[in-house]
Amino acid sequence: MFDLDGTLVQTRGASWAVFRQISDEFGLGLTGPQEYFDLFRGNIFASLDSLCDGHADSEQVKQAFLERLRAQYNPAMVPGMADVIRRLAGHCTLAVVSSNAMEVLRRVLVGNGVAYCFAHVFGGDAVPDKTAAFRSFLADAASQYGRRCEVTYDETPGATRPDLSTTVLVTDTAGDVRDALGAGIRAVGVAWGMHTADELTAAGAEFVAIWPQELPGYLLTGTVPEPTGACAIPPPPTATAPPRAGVTAPPPNAARGSCGAKADECACGCSTVDARPPVTSVAARQAAAAATRRDRRQQAAQLLRSPGATAPPPPSAAPASSSGSAAAAPARRPGSSAPATELRDAVARILGPVASR
């Protein structure tokens, strides 16, 4: 079983930002995040009852807090936890037990692609007391049916009640550790949440993970294999290759085939081309045009320096000179090589207006 806030997702800043609004609105007097984190040393809803005593109606505070969480709370996943979940889902029945609203749990788990790794989810708006959620899970023989990252449940082991010795809560708060031990199950802490490793150990956690990747090695016996099938860890995105010189990019909507054996070939026989991003600003367009003109001048200079260079065919219409009069290109005999000076003059006339721009 996993707690959500501070265990699966990064909650310290995001959760306090929401509750600070509640504290100010109802005059609860909390001045900093540490006072808020201290509320989780026991059951958060019981802590709110004590906090509201003499200040506000605790039920109104709880409902307002859950409503704000539903509307505003969308924390990031703890780095590495999605992979850990996929590894464990192939071997264990996974569940989430949280004080947060069910709508938040759905948003976070679906949004991070791990919803079907969990067989059961207990939200605080449905089951406010985590001890009651533990007992509900343990009482149902079908609770052991897991989900292997698929919609369907895996019913192959047969229906037997979950074993207390193999049911573990993974959490970041001392209050959760005590609730788990009170229900007769084991408790493992994580050091990246609300409470420190020392606080979790003092509450009774049998182990505190410093990194998410420690959890599979501790919870499972032997070597943890790479998850396969629906639980396989998605491959990293393919890196975009830089554009190659001399290759023309296809239109934006051009279809592309799947890559073949060679890096520059597709199964359909086309070339894999990476188009440059569109240029939007005027300054960027001017810079791109200047770079194109510079490349062309360099190519022309290389042509002049190469031995045996021949002049290109004369243009059908000579470009206008800077004075506005037309300059006629010198005649060239078919099949003959143009002298270097003739070629140089022709190139100068072609590039002259470009250089002036």
Radius of gyration: 34 Å
Mean of residue pLDDT? Answer: 79
Strand order of the largest sheet: 3-4-5
* Unreliable stretches: 252-279, 314-336
Individual helix count: 12
CATH superfamily caption of one domain: HAD superfamily/HAD-like
- Please provide the count of β strands: 5
Q: Which fold name fills CATH's third level, the topology of one domain? A: Rossmann fold
Overview of this structure, please?
The chain has 357 residues and is mainly alpha-helical. The protein has a domain of 234 residues: HAD superfamily/HAD-like (Rossmann fold), CATH 3.40.50.1000. Helix content is 38%, strand content 5%. The protein is built from 12 helices and 5 strands. Helix 3 packs across helix 4 and helix 8 runs parallel beside helix 9.
Question: What is the compact description of this entry?
Answer:
By secondary structure, the chain is mostly helical. 38% of the residues lie in helices and 5% in strands.
